[in-house]
Write a structure and sequence with these properties.
Keywords: DNA-binding, Repeat, Transcription, Transcription regulation. Pfam families: TBP (PF00352). One of its GO terms (biological process) is DNA-templated transcription initiation. General factor that plays a role in the activation of archaeal genes transcribed by RNA polymerase. Binds specifically to the TATA box promoter element which lies close to the position of transcription initiation. The chain is an alpha+beta fold. The protein has 2 domains: 12-99, TATA-Binding Protein; 108-179, TATA-Binding Protein. Helices cover 27% and strands 33% of the residues. The protein has 4 helices and 10 strands; from the N terminus they run βαββββαβαββββα. The chain has a 10-stranded antiparallel beta sheet with strand order 2-3-4-5-1-6-10-9-8-7, with helices on one face. The radius of gyration is 20 Å and the shape is elongated. The mean pLDDT is 95.
Length: 183
């Protein structure tokens, strides 16, 4: 088995930290927060270490994005909970963090003929319109992810719920391409 330099680019996770969160108070008391309710109903809070951004909604729902690992997403949520407690906002101590989406990149290390791949893999799970987009879109059922494959051999895997989903998708695709003699 080969190493295709699979790298997690972004983890999107969500949690519930409470209810009836006072976003105006947060925006007044936490200097780096951004809240423009006329443009968007959520407040943006950023963490520096790990680097992430969280959208906090009045309902208590939080969506954390931008971290590079599941553990970093959890650490960012913990920091946000701590920041809110420090200014007197009532929140859940240990909210359950649920991964919604993991975006990863990989590199097969070879140039690919996307036309041949589109035909070889069968058109039912493939979208390939080079006039519209330079990559081939491949939807997998197992793992349940969407993979963008580019002629350079680079890939973007999205929709996974665990880092292992990206690894399995890349291994499966490289195996399929090898079997078809396209890699």
């Amino acid at each position: 088995m080969q190493d295709y330099r699979i790298k997690i680019e972004n983890v999107v996770a969500s949690t519930q930290i409470g209810e009836n969160i006072d976003l105006n108070k947060i925006s007044r008391e936490i200097k780096d927060s951004e809240y423009k309710p006329k443009q968007f109903p959520g407040l943006v809070l950023r963490t520096k270490e790990p680097k992430a951004a969280a959208l906090v909604f009045r309902s208590g729902k939080v969506v954390c994005t931008g971290s590079k690992s599941v553990e970093d997403a959890r650490r960012a949520v913990k920091q946000i909970v701590k920041m809110l407690k420090e200014i007197g906002i009532s929140v859940i101590d240990e909210p359950e963090v649920k991964v919604q989406n993991i975006v990863a990149s990989a590199d097969l290390g070879v140039d690919l003929n996307l036309n041949a791949i589109a035909i070889g893999l069968g058109l039912e799970n493939i979208e390939y319109e080079p006039e519209q987009f330079p990559g081939l879109v491949y939807r997998l059922d197992n793992p349940r992810v969407v993979v963008l494959i580019f002629g350079s051999g680079k890939m973007v895997v999205t929709g996974g719920k665990s880092p292992d989903d990206a690894k399995k998708a890349v291994e499966r695709i490289s195996e399929e391409l090898r079997t078809l003699g396209l890699m």
